[in-house]
Amino acid sequence: MKRKLIVANWKMNQLLAQLRQFFKTLADAKITSDAVELVVCPSLPYLASAVEAASGSKVAIGAQNVSECDFGAFTGEVAAQMLTDIGCKWVLIGHSERRSLYHETDELVGKKTAKALSVGLNPILCVGETLAQREAGITDATVQSQLRAALKGIAAQTQPELVFAYEPVWAIGTGKTATAEEANRVHGVIRQELAAIYGEAAARSARILYGGSAKPDNAASLLQQPHIDGLLIGGASLAADSFAKIAAAGVVPG
Ligand code: 13P
User: Fold this and answer.
1) Pairing of strands 36-41, 4-9
2) Around Cβ 250, how many Cβ atoms within 10 Å?
3) Domains of the chain, with CATH numbers?
4) Whether the Cβ atoms of residue 61 and residue 50 lie closer than 8 Å to each other
């Protein structure tokens, strides 16, 4: 049985006092079950504080971005080794906001993924179609080609673990969620693509998260789907009680 992975992506939100309050409230919620694994991805300046606030709990900390390069003259960038050095375990790569606002290509996403894996950081590789791509009927082809391009040259991974996230761009921050059935269908397409690249066994064990207006109300129905192994949550992850409710839905689906 795969453990459900519940990931908070705070994007560019939360100050230090809010972070501290979040971890205190989350600890009070006592999510101790081994059925779920929890990850929080705060903004860069707060990563070390988050590692400290989460120490002794079951929550791991992730970054929202990483450089594809090693140390050097790259002003404003952060090396994967720096993230592991301060105790980060995870990193989001290729989020649609990085792709659309900061022009990250599939090739760059692939390089960042390889770099994270090389230092023992677990990448969460994000893919997903825009509304225009969905309306053009190319949802499946879009996620397939994003995966193929990003995974070129990357071997199947269990340690560190390479996790995937399906985030339909039209569902992010819009309140529109893909129906659980449609999200599950696209997850199935992603798993098939992973099987074609890495073989059936690796595809079966890969964890694929859904993201896009996931919240306490819809978490259970999403997490009940056979291909949905967790959630990547934006807005509804900012308040600890809401994040805790979503995590609890992963403990007892339904
Ligand atoms: P929302 O949950 O706010 O729609 O954001 C989803 C997301 O982009 C998580 O990475």
Assistant:
1) parallel
2) 24
3) 4-229 (3.20.20.70)
4) yes
Atom of ligand 1 nearest to the CA of 95: 10
Q: Whose CA is nearest to atom 1 of ligand 1?
A: 234
Is this structure's pTM higher than 0.70? yes
- What pLDDT, on a 0 to 100 scale, did the predictor assign at position 49? 98
Would you call 167 a catalytic residue per the annotation?
yes
Q: Which of 37, 68, 95, 97 is catalytic?
A: 95
Q: Minimum mean pLDDT among 38-47, 142-151, 171-180: which range?
A: 171-180
49-63 pLDDT, tens digit each:
999 999 999 999 999
Cβ pair 83, 47 in contact under 8 A: yes
| Among the listed residues 218, 146, 138, 216, the one whose alpha carbon sits nearest the alpha carbon of residue 181 | 218
Answer yes or no: are the C-beta atoms of 197 and 154 closer than 8 Å. Answer: no
